[in-house]
Each structure stands twice: as structure tokens, then as C-alpha cells.
Amino acid sequence: MEIQTLKNFISVINEGNISAAAKINNISQSTLSRQMTELEREINIKLFDRGSRKISLTEAGTIYYQRIRELLLLLNRAEKEVHQTKILSGELYIGAPETEGMEIIASAISNLTKKSPDIRVHLYSGNAEDLNFKMNNGILDFVISLNNDTQNANFIRLPKADSWGIIMKSNDSLANKHEITPEMLENRKLIISNQSSARSELESWLGYSLLDSQITGTVLII
User: What is the pLDDT of residues 25-54, one digit of tens each?
Assistant: First the structure.
């Protein structure tokens, strides 16, 4: 398959239909439609659910779309890197979850781009598992991690610390407490992060394993 066909595939999904994607890519609707049909035939997977006005992805198509986006990102990086001059330039990709440490990173980015204006920085938000996956597969250069597991990575510890907190109703019996202890949460129903690492840290602080019956829901940050 051709790289341009994959780029056209991304355009079809981003625009939601063949006609809009064809206009952006300056090709005919029939040509683009044929490309998408041939793409499905070539990989032997149904990628699209074709409606009368809008195209959506099948479950397999969604996975394919995510991986092709990552592939094209890597290709774009490779093309820019081989054309770099001796001037410090290029693309820097950083996984950036919501953390106090981003204050330091933001300051460093500001200083870096002032000294080297040809450097472009791209920040990607997401949960720890997703960002670490992207770093391990070359999509991100480094990740600001909240995970204490540093056995498989070179790391620098930032002089910042994040604090755990609990969101509750203002009339809750714990709302006026200056400090929450593990004992206060016993038999409480909780909504927690869906990340296994975050759950492990929480259970370590609590001193016991959470029962599934105690967890009423999870939060996914992407």
C-alpha cells in the first residue's frame, strides 16, 4: 500500500466522509472511495461502517486508525530528522500527564525554544500506561511520569510532589477534615483511576486491597 493512501485514510476518518476528504486532498470522490475499498481488500479487514452521510470506524478499524496515525507520526519525524542542519532543530515529543512537575518542564521548554527557535515541542496528554507505551515504541521522546517504577528507564527525579485528594459533597462527614486517613475510607464506595499502577499506590497507602464491591466506577484520563 502507498503512504498517500494511508494519509487519505486518516483524512476520511478526520473529516467523517469521502466528499470532504476528497476535497481536502484534491482528488475525486470516486478515486478516494476506490482507494478505501482497495485498502480494506488488501488488509482483509472491514474498516468502515458506511452510512448515508457519515463514515464511522468498526472496532478493528479504530485500532487500525490509531496505529496508522502513530506510523505516520514516526515517518514524519524521520523525514524531518534526516533533513536537519547543524543548527539545533527538530521535533520534541513529550508525554505530559497532569502533574506539578509540568511547571518545571514548561519553564525548560520556554528556555529551550528561546535559545533554539527551530525546535518545536509537542505535548501529549494521557494516562501512564498509554504514554509509557508510546515512549517505548519511539513515538514520544520522554514522559513526565507519576509512576514510581523506574527499573526499565533512565530518569531524573523532579523536585516536585503531587498530592492525592478526594472529591466529595460539601455536606459529607469528611468534608471538613484537614487530613484523611485510611481508616476513614473503610467501607466507603470509591471512584478511582482505571490505571493499575494508581490503584496499587492507593492500596499501598490504605494498607489493604480494595474489593471490587467497594469500587463503584473508574476514571480514564486520555
Answer: 899 999 999 999 999 999 999 999 887 778
Q: Which residues pair with 50 in a beta bridge?
A: 55
The amino acid occupying position 110 is: S
For residue 132, give the H/E element and its range: helix 128-136
Which secondary-structure segment (H or E) carries 121?
strand 119-124
Q: How many angstroms separate the CA atoms of 133 and 152, rounded? A: 12
| Alpha-carbon gap, residue 135 to 138, rounded angstroms | 5
8 burial via Cβ count (<10 Å: 0-12, 13-18, 19+): buried
Q: What is the pLDDT of residues 162-209, one digit of tens each?
A: 777 888 899 999 998 888 999 999 888 999 887 777 788 888 888 888
- Exposure of 43 in the CB half-sphere (CA atoms within 13 A): 18
Report field, pTM of the whole predicted structure over 0.85:
no
Query: How does pLDDT run across 133-162, given as a tens digit for each residue?
Result: 888 888 898 888 766 555 567 777 777 777
Number of other CB atoms surrounding residue 131 within 10 Å:
24
Residue 77 · residue 143 · CB < 8 Å = no
User: In the beta sheet, which residues pair with residue 123?
Assistant: 94
Which positions ≥6 away from 113 have C-beta within 8 Å?
A: 119, 121
CB atoms within 10 A of CB 7: 13
